Amino acid sequence: MTVSVQVDLGILARVGTALADPTRRRVLVHLISGPGYPAEMAGQFGATRANLSNHLACLRECGLVTTTAEGRRVRYELADPRLAEGLRILASLDLPGTCD
Question: What pTM was computed for the model?
Answer without folding.
Answer: 0.86
